[in-house]
Structure to design on (219 residues):
């Protein structure tokens, strides 16, 4: 797993990935030297590098950066690879982007413009990082939660879904990247099914709850 961005969601997913037996290469915009403590905490399955090194190393690459940073992602190294897009658009942070403000594009479709040869899959953008950590369950657990996944490539979605299963979650297919607005910031599936932020351990949300929340979204 390569990680482009190592904020709260990135670090949480790195912990879950290492716990499931995956090797991870972390990167951020400040350089590998700022990730020494994180790598030490994660153990021997983790290392740090530049974004280019993380992109090249990963069989799957996770992008978890501000939307405004999309132009700086190393596109060439991601060609042909499943790439997980966890990003949410926030104009107060990213500045106003006309296509996103007008909903002409989803943020994932905008990312695909910068990474035209990547096999992009939207996932993990709808869950609070603490809930992501605490709600992971083994396969078959009655209180296992589900996460929505959107993408244009069926094989890439299958690869990402297998990774998500390995770290403790079931998957609900939420359609294509054009459909990923259904899991964007402020929609019914964004945060709410997993409980209040004040409850760090969250509340399990199974397939039925996630399907209902996706269906309740309005443009």
């Amino acid at each position: 797993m390569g990680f482009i961005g190592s904020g709260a969601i990135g670090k949480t997913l790195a912990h879950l990935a290492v716990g499931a037996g995956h090797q991870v290469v972390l990167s951020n915009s400040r350089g590998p030297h700022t990730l020494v403590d994180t790598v030490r905490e994660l153990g021997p399955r983790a290392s740090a590098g530049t974004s280019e090194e993380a992109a090249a190393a990963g069989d799957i690459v996770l992008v978890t950066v501000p939307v405004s940073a999309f132009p700086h992602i190393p596109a060439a190294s991601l060609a042909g690879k499943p790439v997980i897009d966890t990003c949410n658009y926030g104009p107060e942070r990213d500045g106003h982007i006309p296509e996103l403000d007008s909903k002409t594009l989803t943020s994932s479709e905008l990312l695909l413009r910068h990474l035209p040869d990547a096999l992009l899959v939207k996932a993990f953008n709808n869950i609070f990082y603490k809930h992501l950590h605490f709600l992971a369950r083994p396969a078959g657990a009655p209180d296992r939660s589900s996460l929505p996944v959107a993408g244009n490539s069926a094989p890439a979605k299958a690869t990402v879904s297998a990774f998500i299963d390995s770290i403790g979650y079931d998957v609900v297919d939420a359609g294509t990247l054009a459909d990923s607005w259904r899991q964007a910031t402020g929609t019914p599936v964004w945060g709410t099914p997993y409980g209040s932020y004040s409850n760090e351990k969250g509340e399990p949300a199974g397939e039925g709850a996630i399907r209902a929340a996706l269906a309740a979204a309005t443009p």
